[in-house]
Amino acid sequence: MVSDFLAVSDCFILKINYFLLCFQLRAQNQVLKKGVVDEQANSAALKEQLKMKDQSLRKLQQEMDSLTFRNLQLAKRVELLQDELALSEPRGKKNKKSGESSSQLSQEQKSVFDEDLQKKIEENERLHIQFFEADEQHKHVEAELRSRLASLETEAAQHQAVVDGLTRKYMETIEKLQNDKARLEVKSQTLEKEAKECRLRTEECQLQLKNLYEDLSSRLEESLSIINEKVPFNDTKYSQYNALNVPVHNRRHQLKMRDITGQALAFVQDLVKGLLNFHTYTEQRIQIFPVDSAIDTISPLNQKFSQYLHENASYVRPLEEGMLHLFESITEDTVTVLETTVKLKTFSEHLTSYICFLRKILPYQLKSLEEECEASLCTSALRARNLELSQDMKKMTAVFEKLQTYIGLLALPSTEPDGLLRTNYSSVLTNVGAALHGFHDVMKDISKHYSQKATIEHELPTATQKLITTNDCILSSVVALTNGAGKIASFFSNNVDYFIASLSYGPKTASGFISPLSAECMLQYKKKAAAYMKALRKPLLESVPYEEALANRRVLLSSTESREGLAQQVQQSLEKISKLEQEKEHWMLEAQLAKIKLEKENQRTADKLKSTSNGQAVGVAQEGAALVTAAGQEDASAKAVPEAVHSTSLIGILTRTSDSEAPDVESREDLIRNHYMARIVELTSQLQLADSKSVHFYAECRALSKRLALAEKSKEALAEEMKVASQNISRLQDELTTTKRSYEDQLSMMSDHLCSMNETLSKQREEIDTLKMSSKGNSKKNKSR
Description:
Elements: H1 2-94, H2 100-230, H3 239-242, H4 251-288, H5 300-309, H6 313-329, H7 343-373, H8 380-411, H9 425-458, H10 465-501, H11 516-536, H12 546-611, E1 644-649, E2 652-657, H13 665-784
Antiparallel strand pairs: 1-2
Helix pairs in contact: 1-2, 4-5, 4-6, 4-10, 5-7, 6-7, 7-8, 8-9, 9-10, 12-13
């Protein structure tokens, strides 16, 4: 109904927008039409002005023509007068003496003509000037008018194009809006129909809601009356009492938590192993660099630092023990929440002690790095790596402190009830994941910088083989720590949602376990309830035959023995796996040492071969603890095959030559290499075989445990169904007896009622007879009277 109302409102809004847009388009169209009309009026006025200018120009041209004609006439007259003057001059000379009066008359006429000619010339000059000025002005005005006319024509064309474009656009918009209007009208009609249907539906829903409200109110009243009459004590009203209620047992949750804790234990064990190796190899490095303790005494600072590092196992080992105790405390029968994980406090205390150890060794570690930087052979690149490592060590200690803070907060609910609010659990777990990722990033930086530092130190001229080997061991331990930190960070990130979701596992109506004491009481009540339920589930002796009970007992004992045998096999497989892991690490270290010794021997052999000038082969002296020895010099003439002698040791059987005959150096090295490679391959295959067997045993055990769990669940379900069926049978029998009794009671009541009705009818008949008799007697008396 709300969606239909929204659709109708959208339709009305679209209509309003359509009308507003049409109004705006009409207003803009009127403005544009007015502008076009104004421009057309301006162009018409300009055309009129141009016509008037053309007319004035024509008049001026006519005047100019008349003036030029008049000038020509005057010029001809002047010429005639000059001719007459020229003709009259000789005559005047001849007749000069004849008459002065005629000369005076001619001079007067000449002066008159001259004045008239001068006036005509000035007037002609003035007219020429006016004509020239009028012509120039006319040309200037004509040019201005033509340019203005061209600009106006271009503007008129642009305006016309704009008007055409806008007209086309407005026509398209109008067509589109008309289509939208038609579509919206259709849609509005459909929405009106839907609105009518929705009104009908709402009326029906309101009727249903009213009926449901009445039904639920009646049920609520009935339930409240039953609760008030039948429930004497409500233990969910107060959270202190509700915290003592035993929650529903979630076996899947417990198995999941135990599995997750086992994975965390494995990661912590790897982390502890890496920390032990890192601190131990760091102690070995201090003994040989920058000063070798076998040659000279090391500084008091490094002595104290070495002494502290020697105590690392007493601080690191308890971390593994604390995690192991936490794993052992989580079983299938407990309730695992933060209020019940008391062993987490122990792990937090062990982590606090290890952080105190890190704080104690951090200043010595920084001073030791500064001492290395102050050495004479320390280059600028090595000094930069040392400074980066000192910063990384500070970050590592800070990350451990941050991690310990959050783990300490998670351990508070099991010891102090008000130490950490339940609403802050999720944020604390998120911060733990962030701290683990920060630890992984710091270890990656340490691995990167230490590998660069080891590479630079290997290139130093004073780098010994002990230093190179120790640096490689430290680098391998740092890589192991980096991998372990990455695994545990990704593991926690993958399971943090499950941790946050599992925090609500506890009393439903209360906010949680009020205090560790209430949690402990709840666990005791849970054990008592489990024992009570187990006692209730014992079958009666009369309900199961003796032969079937014996068969069930044999099956139960065989399943229990097989389960115990499988558990023992799993334990043995785990022990074998741990031993094989230790052997694998041992042989990996042996292989590294053998590789280093082989490189040393190759280097020494190459140096000696370079030093010999006569090309004779010189026997290579090898260490006293080596398994292969060879001595003597090969004779140029003797090429006899040496006799082979077998030597046995803890790592296998090795073939060697007698002391009297020396093999070639390369063949001996190949023999050693092949022997070690074959031994490593053999050990690897054995390890893989053991791993596959352990995985197979683990899979079988998991499958058997799952089958056992399914069998137990099916057994419990069948028992519950049997119990429900028996209860239904007894209930139906009771109902049958009660219905029989009620029917019998009703029949007896009906028979009694019929008897009483017969009695009343008989009494009424008797009364009617008596009334008739009395009425007859009265009528007789009246007649007699």
